Amino acid sequence: MLNISPFSYGLNIQQVYDNGSVYSPEVLDITEASLHAKFLEGVRNIASVCLQIGYPTLASVPHSVINGYKRVLAVAVETDYSFPLADKVKAFLADPSAFAAVAAAPVAAAAASTAAAPAAKEEKEESEAEGSDDDMGFGLFD
Known about the structure:
Elements: E1 16-18, E2 21-23, H1 32-53, H2 61-78, H3 84-94, H4 96-113, H5 117-131
Antiparallel strand pairs: 1-2
Helix pairs in contact: 3-4
GO molecular function: large ribosomal subunit rRNA binding; structural constituent of ribosome
GO biological process, one term: ribosomal large subunit assembly
Organism: Liparis tanakae (Tanaka's snailfish)
């Protein structure tokens, strides 16, 4: 045959020089998660600026709708106007303790499930206390 074998070539980047600054090649390792985080940060910035100046965009419309709904609820609470969700808010404002019992039920269930955990933690703390007697190189009379 032709005795041709495949090969590959490329650059092995040691340092990156940009406008007088030298960086390690790790700055070029951009993950999809970091791109996603930066994109969402930009969307949040756009939404906040557009909300402040009153310019509706796709990013700010959900916030505008929620803010409008909050205003409608505030008007409904202060007046005699009522609709089903406003009735729930009025009931909560009239007697917050009734809703505290409902909110305490999931907390009580979580507390019951973690009741067995403190016994295990106490045993662990005792073993850590025994091992923490070293003075990190400093004695009483050093």
